[in-house]
Amino acid sequence: MRYYSTRSKTHDVSFSEAALGGLAPDGGLYVPAEIPQLSPAVKSSLGSMSYLEIALELIRPWVAGDIPNGVLEEMIQDAYPFGAPLTGLSDRSVLELFHGPTGAFKDFGARFMARAFSYLRRGEDRPLKILVATSGDTGGAVADGFFGVQGVTVTVLYPQGRITSLQEKQIAGLGENISALAVEGSFDDCQRLVKEAFGDQELKERLALSSANSINISRLVPQCVYYASGAGEIPGAIISVPSGNFGNLTAGLYAARMGAPIAGFVAATNVNRTVPDYLATGNYEARSSVATLSNAMDVGAPSNFERMAAHFTLSEMRQMILGASVTDDETRETIGDVFSKEGYCLDPHTAVGWRAVDKLKAAGPLGRGDRIIVAATAHPAKFAETVEPITGPVTVPPSLQKALGRTVVSRPIPARLEALREYL
Ligand SMILES: *Cc1c(COP(=O)(O)O)cnc(C)c1O
Fold first, then answer.
1. Are 25 and 1 in contact (CB under 8 A)?
2. What is the DSSP string of 405-416?
3. b/e code 379-395 from CB counts within 10 Å (16+ = b)
């Protein structure tokens, strides 16, 4: 498979170059030259295939030429000792994407990416140094995914005092090849520092730097798999995706275009409603983000929108995607309602996905007969501060329990490139 930058079609690269490079040199995002197609045989048997079998079929064409089948199979087996089960509730199903080690769907992307990087860098003597800025969930998934991976070191930059203590333990409690910097500033400062480091000539010459944010195509490809597995069980469903940077929804669109039997999507956002507004008005207006309870979705300028726009026109997007945005009050109310009516506990992000469906049902675009899947992007125990006052105590799964016992080792740094450079 060859990949182009969203900003120019003059120069194509391999999967390996696209994955290890992250961002294209012109600042664009890598997109596939064409979206691969599932064979009719695979399409019709998705419902009876295992998660690992679906993963192999779906990922194979995206990495063809760079990762041989046998290696890919081992990678997938090693990355996914957990799956993405569907839980049926009264009028919809929940696709649980939180059974990985850090309790959020980002484990699916990060665990594949780590194994792919390690293979693609085999034989290189300089270790690859990954810099990643996080507002909470990405850092934990990337740290966990790369923990103990040969030839790769990870430095996570997080805003000091602005992530939960569980998130801090997931990021700064591992040690070995993972290090953590508590930046004296905001998430935006962390992201700016990472960008400045990539733009710094001296650092570039001295270190092999890469990034692990959702602009990286190797995180999106493995996310197609759970859409196909969910759609295999409930063909023709409309899938609601709680969205921030729109990497997850983009992966869903890829799965649908590959031929997975998906009828459409709901782009569910909190009040950071850039994309729902675009679908409604046709005007794309990026803005500054507003802080909400579903903080992993506090994004005013979603980075993967550039990918969506490279593949689809506004009217194509409108045919596939319904948009809806949800306030914090509605989020809290939904957590309470669903807990009392269904006995099921939603995290604040998944609650946004759930409520978006309710709103679209009330307004008309979704009908009674529509089969609905809500993607559950995080385990509620990860956001206990919000959930527990509403539902009472939430059971903590063993993987998160394990992280709670770790000791945080991180280094505070001022939000200046000089401080980061010195550390590196
Ligand atoms: C990252 C994240 C999202 C948003 O996903 P995008 O791919 O950025 O749209 C939603 N929910 C949770 C729990 C997340 O961690």
1. no
2. TPPP--EEEESS
3. bbbbbbebbeebbeebe
Q: Which is nearest to 86 in space by CA: 99, 101, 104, 76?
A: 99
Give the ligand 1 atom nearest the CA of 382.
Answer: 13
Residue nearest to atom 2 of ligand 1 (CA): 296
**Alpha carbon nearest to ligand 1 atom 1, residue:** 296
Tell how far the Cα of 422 is from the centroid of ligand 1, in angstroms.
32
Strand partners of residue 1:
none
In this prediction, what percent of the chain has a pLDDT beyond 70?
A: 100
> How do residues 183-215 score in pLDDT, each as one tens digit?
998 888 898 898 889 888 888 788 888 888 878
Q: Which amino acid is at 360?
A: L
Residue in 43, 106, 169, 382 annotated catalytic: 106
- Check if the beta carbon of residue 331 is closer than 8 Å to that of residue 270: yes
232 lines ligand 1 (CB under 6 A): no
How close is the Cα of 40 to the center of ligand 1, in Å?
31
The phi, psi pair for 12, rounded to 5°, reads -110, 155
Strand partners, 396: none
Our answer to whether residue 106 is catalytic in this structure is yes
Q: What does residue 234 show for φ and ψ, rounded to 5 degrees?
A: -130, 80
Give the position, in ligand 1's atom list, of the atom nearest the Cα of 248: 7
Q: What is the mean pLDDT of the chain?
A: 94
Q: How far is the CA of 135 from the centre of ligand 1 (A)?
A: 11
Rounded CA separation 334/359 (Å)? 11
